[in-house]
Design goal:
The protein is an alpha/beta fold. It has 3 domains: 90 residues, Rossmann fold; 208 residues, UDP-N-acetylmuramoyl-L-alanine:D-glutamate ligase (3-Layer(aba) Sandwich); 135 residues, Mur ligase, C-terminal domain (Protein-Tyrosine Phosphatase, Chain A), CATH 3.90.190.20. The protein is built from 16 helices and 19 strands. The strands form 3 sheets. The chain has a 9-stranded mixed beta sheet with strand order 6-7-5-8-9-10-11-12-13, with helices on both faces. A 6-stranded mixed beta sheet has the order 14-15-19-16-17-18, sandwiched between helices. Helix 11 packs across helix 12.
């Protein structure tokens, strides 16, 4: 784990004892801090029972800081009771990234790459971690993906920490200077937690606000928010695009990658030939960002592209599970909003689309133009009626209620060469614990079909 000697003898509250919180308790205790841990769920408190202390009953002024879990409301729809309590006492609220930043001076010489964005950040984080290892340097992947940042083991000198950061984590973090910070895109998401799109954009922008002038900001200029944000980091910005050439950056046109980091653009050819597992223009954006990060880390372009070719892909993100009688089953359970689902729908043809769940958005009409690639839509969960209303004019739809019935119906209708795509455009919380659980159920049901067809 990562320890921070700067926290020795500090009194730190930790509220929220899921993966990140439990890791923080152990790391802070190993750092010599006096930890007061609490969660509203008794079964979670049991994981760190020795440190359990009712923070609601405690004088917040006794704490040097309160570490808040990312899932706890900071401002919207209203501040959590402990947030208000700390504000009244003048007690800082921090995240595990603040502790990591404090630990960095005691770690072997290293670099940190941090990735945020509405969509694609998990794929890009995993891709960069894979690229670093393939190019001969140690890496550790964590943050909003995989392990909490304090659960990571310290890397040897020359290592690269590759960290995914959500808007919730950025909202909480006070001090975190990523050597390379990446913004992939911004579309409306989590507006209930940020108040409006401006609040969401401000949270993302914090990743660059916390950097120093020696750090690099890699920003996609393909949406208006990124284009506006890059103006604030001029002099250390690297633009990326999948829509147009960009000076001093990396761009992809019709699948062809161009490196203009050193001035004149150099073509590295068709990305599909280099990385057949990374389909679609959204993955061009992911690869452009990863490529730029790799070059800034000192890797050669040819080695970066070779690393892309050996990337196995991300679980639950356009993950091919099986081919059964020539029908391809694709698990894109991580597509929990409209924009993410649109990326998958653009990547395939002859689609039998399984969608639905608990909606983040009220309007699915942005998906209607993409129904030209869909043969039939099989809808599940709470959003079934809303999706049917918004896209039903462009495709036949069937309300299947749950995932099992949707898969059976899709397989009964699909023909050789078709794709059965789970890309829900919704969260899984109406029927599953999370998108991972939904994806695992999809996998198990498809494997059962594969076994029965063998």
């Amino acid at each position: 784990m990562i320890t921070a000697p700067a926290y020795k003898d500090k009194k730190i509250g930790v509220f929220g004892l899921a993966r990140t919180g439990v890791a923080a308790v152990h790391a802070l205790e190993a750092s010599g801090a006096d930890v007061f841990a609490w969660d509203d769920a008794e079964e979670r408190r049991a994981a760190v029972d020795h440190a359990a202390h009712d923070l609601y009953a405690m004088d917040a002024g006794e704490l040097d800081a309160l570490m808040l879990a990312p899932g706890v409301p900071l401002t919207h729809p209203k501040p959590h009771a402990l947030v208000t309590k700390c504000a009244e006492a003048g007690t800082p609220i921090i995240s595990d990234f603040d502790v990591f930043e404090a630990a960095r001076t005691d770690l072997p010489v290293h670099k940190v790459v941090a990735i945020t964005g509405t969509n694609g950040k998990s794929t890009t984080t995993a891709l960069i971690g894979h690229m670093v290892e393939a190019c001969g340097r140690p890496s550790a992947i964590g943050g909003n993906i995989g392990k909490g940042v304090l659960s990571l083991n310290p890397l040897d000198a020359g290592g690269v920490y590759v960290l995914e950061m959500s808007s919730f984590q950025l909202d909480l973090t006070k001090a975190f200077n990523a050597n390379i910070a990446i913004l992939l895109n911004i579309t409306p998401d989590h507006l209930d937690r940020h108040g409006d799109i401006d609040g969401y954009v401000r949270a993302k922008k914090r990743l660059f606000d916390m950097q120093d002038n020696q750090s690099v900001a890699i920003i996609s200029v393909d949406d208006r928010h990124g284009a506006a944000m890059i103006a604030g980091v001029s002099g250390r910005a690297v633009p990326i695009s999948v829509e147009k050439p960009v000076s001093g950056g990396v761009y992809v046109l019709d699948g062809e990658l161009f490196d203009a980091l050193d001035g004149e653009a150099v073509s590295y050819g068709d990305l599909l030939a280099h990385a057949p597992m990374l389909l679609g223009s959204h993955n061009w954006q992911n690869m452009a960002a990863a490529y730029a990060a790799g070059r800034i880390l000192g890797f050669h372009g040819e080695d970066i592209l070779k690393a892309f070719g050996s990337f196995p892909g991300l679980v639950h993100r356009q993950e091919t599970i099986a081919y059964v009688r020539g029908i391809r089953f694709v698990n894109d359970s991580k597509a929990t909003n409209v924009d993410a689902a649109s990326r998958a729908l653009k990547a395939f043809d002859s689609i039998h689309w399984i969608a639905g769940g608990r909606p983040k958005e009220k309007d699915f009409s942005a998906l209607l133009p993409l129904m030209t690639s869909v043969k039939h839509a099989y809808l599940i969960g709470e959003a079934a009626d809303a999706i049917a209303h918004d896209v039903g004019g462009g495709v036949d739809v069937t309300d299947c209620a749950d995932l099992s019935h949707a898969i059976d119906a899709a397989f009964a209708s699909a023909a050789e060469g078709d794709v059965i795509l789970l890309s829900p455009a919704c969260t899984a919380f109406d029927q599953f614990r999370d998108f991972e659980a939904r994806g695992e159920v999809f996998r198990s049901l498809v494997k059962k079909i594969e076994e029965e067809a063998a």
